[in-house]
Amino acid sequence: MVPARGTRLFAGAVVVACMALLGPSAPGDALFPGPLPAGAVREVVPNRVMTWNICNPCETSNVDRAAQIASFAPQVIGLQEACGRDVEQIRDYLEHLHGLAYHVEYGQVLRSWGRCGGVPWSPGGFGQAVLSAAPMTDRVSVEYPDGGSEDRGYMAVTTLVGGRSVRVFNTHLAHRRQEAVRADQTGVLAAEVARYDRAIVLGDFNAVPDAGELAPMWALAADADPRCRPSQAGTCTPTTDWHTRFDYIFLRGITPLRHRVQPTPYSDHHLLHSDLAPTQRA
Question: Within a 10 A sphere around the Cβ of 85, how many other Cβ atoms?
């Protein structure tokens, strides 16, 4: 059960106060992040969406993760490789340290002590999460019939982007060198996305743009970067430390205004965000 907002606010204040007294809980884990980058957003941008594989397991502070997200303050954020406890901390830091309030929904597909800690009889949840400045409804969480080497799935919610209702999907496909598995997963996801005239699909697809397994998505939607296409003529900015494009913001019935890929020291995947004009295409 998710605590009431008032309880979370009180608990968050106690946590911050205790950290101020005790200091960081892990080496290199600063209590307060440094100054935000020049031009950093101080309020949520209502038409901005972001996707980020936050890397797990990684020796990364949730204070730093929250500061990275706060630098761009998107309306909607899709996180992959996310532990429930980490997401709760990120959400609390965004609110208490940066003044950005988000709702959270989960699409976890694993209960993983090795990934997320906890106790053996109650391990932490691992998978996807969506943070939205507006309330979310109609959440679904679907595990793919074949996850490959690790269980994988997608989640979907309905929320507001740019003041208009839209269906938002968040997914993480099978690891590399599992093309056939990813093809089946994309087929499952695309069949659901096709039900909506207006949809945003966020996630780590573990596949380059011209990979055959992404064909069902390209048939339904376009990348937020108009130059990124599944052809040799396309120019797709890499989104990983190994210089490949694995992360996408697919748009169906929505026009992008601008996009950005931002490398970060806190994950092996870059932050990818886009500002949208949520109007139906002709």
Answer: 14
Q: What count of residues does the chain have?
A: 282
**C-alpha to C-alpha distance for 89 and 110, rounded to whole angstroms:** 19
Kind plus residue range of the DSSP H or E element containing 110: strand 103-111
| pTM, 2 dp | 0.84
Chain center to CA of 112: 19
Q: What are phi and psi of 44, to 5 degrees?
A: -60, 135
The tens digit of pLDDT for each residue in 226-273 reads: 999 998 767 999 999 999 999 999 999 999 999 999 999 999 999 999
If phi over 0 gives left and psi between -120 and 50 gives alpha, with beta otherwise, what is residue 116?
Answer: alpha
Backbone φ, ψ for residue 90 (5° rounding):
-60, -45
* Contact (CB, 8 A) for 220 and 190: yes
200, 253 contact by CB (below 8 A):
no
User: In terms of C-beta density within 10 A (0-12 exposed, 13-18 middle, 19 or more buried), how is residue 31 classed?
Assistant: middle
| Residues in Cβ contact with 26 at an 8 Å cutoff, skipping those fewer than 6 apart | 59, 61
